[in-house]
Design goal:
single chain, 162 residues, Immunoglobulin-like
């Protein structure tokens, strides 16, 4: 019984050590050289997204979300602005520039309560996942850049003929 307990504890310790080493590899990506990217223009800020390494990165996408907190009513709102993917000349890399005057679009429902709420109003852009390069986004001052990682489903589904 004591022998079985020692074997079980040994297996748990080995598994934990392997998991910790594997996790450490994923989170210790070398910092990419950001000096090759242009400085932010007047009125803009540079945001950088560093992604952890994944197996089969072609099965992932990154949704870049640029927006800001605004006071809004019960309607649906979205930021008016646009993303432009630009080439980093001489390097073969790209970066994103988001331009907006900070205006938003909205549905025109009559709101029963006239209460304004703080809400993050945004635009999004979907791009490929690549942990070897940073995702660099230039956005106007006062905006925030967030992101989501999307993973491809392994389940295929059939379309219906109608």
């Amino acid at each position: 019984m004591k022998l079985l307990l020692n074997i079980a504890l040994g297996l748990i310790a080995t598994t934990s050590l392997c998991f910790a080493q594997n996790k450490q590899k994923l989170n210790t990506q070398p910092k990419q050289n950001l000096e090759i990217y242009p400085k932010a223009k007047e009125g803009f800020q540079r945001f950088v997204i560093q992604l952890p390494a994944q197996k089969n990165e072609e099965g992932y996408k990154v949704e870049i979300i640029v927006g800001k907190m605004m006071k809004v009513d019960c309607n649906q709102h979205g930021m008016i602005g646009s993303f432009e993917e630009k080439d980093l000349k001489g390097w073969g890399y790209t970066y994103f520039e988001y331009t907006s005057k900070g205006e938003m679009r909205s549905t025109l429902m009559g709101c029963p309560d006239k209460v304004l709420r703080d809400k993050f109003i945004s635009n999004t852009e979907l791009t490929r996942y690549n942990s070897k390069l940073p995702i660099v986004v230039y956005a106007p001052k006062g905006f925030q850049v967030r992101y989501k990682i999307w993973e491809r489903s392994q389940k295929e589904q059939n379309a219906v003929i109608k």
